[in-house]
Amino acid sequence: MSVSPASEPAPQVPYFFLSYAHTPLLSSRRGANINLWVERLFDDLCGHLLAWTALRRDSDAGFMDRDIRSGDRWPDQLAEALATCRVFVPLYSPRYFASVECGKEWSAFQQRLDLHPEGGAPTAIVPALWSPMREPGGLPECAHDIQYDDAAFGPRYRQEGFYGLMKVTSMRSHYQRATLALARRIMEAAERLPPVRPSAPPDYASLTSAFHGEGAPRSDKTAARRLRLTIAAPDLSHLPADRRTEPYGHTPQEWNPYYSEDGGRPLAMHAMELALSHGLLPEIGSLSDHADRLADGGAQDAPSVMIVDPWITAHADSKASLGRIGRLDRRPVPVVPWNLGDPQTAGAEHELKRNLRDTLPDRTGPQSVSHVTSLEQFRRNMPKILGSATRNFFRTTPTYPPPGTPEPRPRLKHTEETDDKRP
């Protein structure tokens, strides 16, 4: 007895979730958006799957976050796709494993594998190389036993990754072969029985990265140090009257002053990725989360950076809290993103700068306020700021020598033999 199409169960879609690290836009206007190449790969994979299966729409074939913006409740959309997709496809690159967001996506899918071990074979994770991984031993522990290369992808794939194959015209045939092989692996994993069953969407905000902490690359574990990263910005419920809402979210951590430059990604995500790439494990929180600890000298237990929205000085309580921290001898290194492309910020520039001078007195050296006028400048200067925070932490942290009389420093004894060896 055949089953009518109307009574067939709805397929579990999307077939695959493409997890990739967003590449910052180039500062030059003529620079290409590298993320568009990821979209091309995604479209090609969806096209192959539509040709090979009975899927009805490209949205049934795959999911990527190219159309998600900060105002579209992107965590909910990501969580829903991660809870229902059949296959998880991470695009490996050095930037991917430095990304907290990508680590959260991996964690969300891994939770489904752990809940349903009968359908949670590692083959439900089908990785692909976006750019070459020069240090395979540096992969996080969660990725150690998952194959990401085989002969079916062609001889140039491991050397170049998908990005390299796409950018060189003469390698078009290599790209086509690798894309077909990846689509075939996705389809085989999706059709494998039993499938990875859907689950309730995870609480995306509470997810931890699978790549950091206990899951960090082995080579990074011993070098990692804590960093306290404080976001001193208002949320949507604490904005000044008539302040435009585009840069803000439901929490201070969602603030993005350069909302027109990188598709709405929170500035905290850029800062966290840069910190991780420099061997620091960031502890991110709002001004209210960290204010008491910082004011009580909590900045002494870790390097500390505070990213400050000038508009927070328009809120009396936040300004007072910021002022208490600004007067500390061991205050965090402050960074002030200053987007004069925002008409309201440009119009209130003099007043905001006066409020900042009163609240965070400028200082010389590593504790001075940095005014950062673009996302590209923020990413370029952030390593210097992290270095200043680390040096400041070690310079001002009290030392506790062992009790007792200190031993004299060792000295080379003066002997006749040493005199004879002198020139």
From TrEMBL:
Would you kindly state one Gene Ontology biological process term found in this protein's UniProt entry? signal transduction
Q: Where is the composition biased (Basic and acidic residues)?
A: 408-423
Q: Where is this region: Disordered?
A: 386-423
- Pfam families the UniProt entry points to: TIR_2
The family database entries (InterPro entries) matched by this protein are listed as: FxsC_C (IPR026367), FxsC_N (IPR047603), TIR_dom (IPR000157), Toll_tir_struct_dom_sf (IPR035897)
TIR domain: which residues?
53-152
Which named protein is this? Answer: FxsC-like protein
